[in-house]
């Protein structure tokens, strides 16, 4: 399984299950996708004759997403999932892509993720924390919870609004503390995961380069996200949990070592 630093494919196919994802996530979703590459294909699947997808209809042109119509031919069967899977396989066989982004919380996409990765491509999953089964999370190279994206986006919007309302000059706004920031939370859970990964990554309790550590972290926990614990980056989180010595090498790389 590939690590976080290596996950930088250029050509991505973004496939969205409209029946399973709220339209409010679209902007932070594509911001996140842009970290990994360029979305050459953006398709969304659902029955567009139903009123439930109205919110998505308003987003299609704005974000250049191609809607794919899928009628529910049989009650109790998810035709949307089947359509997405079939098109994903068609795109896979073109060999024009380096990775796929599957946006859904549905366990039906677990075999698809496994099949794509078996072909040597990267799979990024996006879904809701409380709905996505563990099997689908583990089938992806990297999994991001939509909840985190929405929370981060909401904080960013609030920070911008607060800055606009501030009577202070721009030069003084940063010093005023009038910004909305993520707050470190649930650090005991983060400590446990990071220590577990360090014990796997380190040799003889030596210093470990943070990039290598991040790779191993993604391998063992595809859904690990520093933002879950109130930190924008892994570098910030390893300092906040305070179980590591942290040093910067002459070539500006960061290394960590578990405190004695």
From TrEMBL:
Pfam families, alphabetized? NYN (PF01936), OST-HTH (PF12872)
Q: Which branch of life, at top level? A: Bacteria
Protein name per Swiss-Prot or TrEMBL: NYN domain-containing protein
Name the PROSITE patterns on file: HTH_OST (PS51644)
Q: In this protein, which residues make up the domain named HTH OST-type?
A: 186-260
Q: Which PANTHER family match?
A: HTH OST-TYPE DOMAIN-CONTAINING PROTEIN, SLR1870 PROTEIN
Q: Which organism is it from?
A: Thermoleptolyngbya sichuanensis A183
GO terms of molecular function: RNA nuclease activity
């Amino acid at each position: 399984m590939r690590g976080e630093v290596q996950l930088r494919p250029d050509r991505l196919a973004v496939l969205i299950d409209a029946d399973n994802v709220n339209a409010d996530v679209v902007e932070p979703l594509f911001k996140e996708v842009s970290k990994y590459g360029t979305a050459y294909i953006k398709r969304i699947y659902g029955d567009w004759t139903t009123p439930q997808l109205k919110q998505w209809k308003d987003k299609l042109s704005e974000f250049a997403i191609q809607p794919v119509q899928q009628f529910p031919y049989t009650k109790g069967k998810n035709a949307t999932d089947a359509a997405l899977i079939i098109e994903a396989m068609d795109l896979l066989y073109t060999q024009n892509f380096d990775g796929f982004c599957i946006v859904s919380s549905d366990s039906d996409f677990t075999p698809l993720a496994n099949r794509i990765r078996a072909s040597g491509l990267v799979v990024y999953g996006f879904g809701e924390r409380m709905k996505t089964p563990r099997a689908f999370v583990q089938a992806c190279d990297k999994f991001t919870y939509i909840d985190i994206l929405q929370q981060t986006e909401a904080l960013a919007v609030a920070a911008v609004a607060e800055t606009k309302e501030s009577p202070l000059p721009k030069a003084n706004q940063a010093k005023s503390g009038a910004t909305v920031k993520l707050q470190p939370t649930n650090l005991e859970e983060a400590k446990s995961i990071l220590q577990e990964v360090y014990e796997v990554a380190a040799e003889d309790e030596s210093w470990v380069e943070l990039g290598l550590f991040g790779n191993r972290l993604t391998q063992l926990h595809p859904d690990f996200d520093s933002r879950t614990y109130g930190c924008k980056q892994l570098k910030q989180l390893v300092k906040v949990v305070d179980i590591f010595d942290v040093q910067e090498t002459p070539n500006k790389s960061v290394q960590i070592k578990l405190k004695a």
